[in-house]
Backbone:
């Protein structure tokens, strides 16, 4: 079953003070089946994150379509989905992990992960147990569980971000450099969770600079060059 299909997608950005419009990406086409993992590589500024943010609708696409097979709405074009529909999808079906942590102030790490679970309908007792499991798995120091993450290091924030997204077991998970500031041990923890999610049917699209991390993990790898997505960057562990 095709989970995500991107057809002739493009995105422009306008620099208003220069009165200039720039084409960030164009003619992007790919599809991904349920439970597959597509990796996207490329130099900084090539447009990789623009694709992910447009799927998540942080950016509003300019052209083409992004067809997603939603459990709630059926086949839906994310370029045309209403804000209400996108809020629902982000809450229940589509997860996003970025290098940066953007959370409510005065909310502890433990509360953030518990909140993610409660949103999915878990009971408070289960949410407490599963939150502790996730924080332990990603080796976040227990001393930090009941503190506010605005004081965390970059690596600690990223591990918390990954924990919050993955405990929800999203239908589609978007990963924007999820290992950017992590040590090797933490990368292995992330890989372990990705493998488990994939085995349980989660579909994933990820951006990486760490080619070694992707080895044996992705079904397909695409290369972004000059705003265009090129096939033939290699297929790793097909099937």
Residues:
């Amino acid at each position: 079953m095709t989970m995500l299909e991107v057809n002739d997608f493009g995105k422009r950005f306008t620099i208003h003070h220069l009165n200039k419009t720039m084409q960030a990406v164009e003619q992007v086409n790919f599809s991904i089946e349920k439970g597959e993992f597509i990796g996207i590589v490329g130099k900084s500024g090539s447009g990789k994150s623009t694709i992910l943010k447009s799927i998540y609708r942080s950016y509003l696409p300019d052209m083409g379509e992004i067809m997603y097979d939603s459990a709630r709405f059926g086949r839906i074009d994310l370029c045309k989905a209403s804000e209400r529909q996108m809020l629902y999808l982000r809450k229940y079906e589509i997860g996003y992990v970025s290098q940066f942590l953007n959370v409510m102030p005065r909310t502890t790490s433990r509360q953030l992960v518990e909140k993610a679970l409660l949103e999915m309908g878990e009971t408070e007792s289960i949410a407490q147990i599963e939150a502790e499991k996730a924080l332990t798995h990603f080796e976040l120091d227990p001393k930090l569980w009941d503190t506010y993450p605005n004081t965390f290091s970059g690596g600690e924030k990223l591990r918390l971000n990954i924990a919050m997204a993955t405990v929800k077991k999203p239908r589609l998970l978007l990963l924007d450099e999820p290992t950017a500031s992590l040590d090797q041990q933490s990368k292995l923890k992330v890989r372990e969770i990705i493998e488990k999610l994939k085995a349980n049917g989660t579909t994933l699209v990820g951006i990486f600079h760490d080619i070694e991390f992707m080895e044996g993990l992705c079904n397909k790898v695409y290369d972004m060059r000059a705003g265009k997505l090129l096939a033939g960057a290699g297929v790793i562990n097909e099937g």
Notes: The domain at 2-230 is CATH 3.40.50.300 (Rossmann fold).
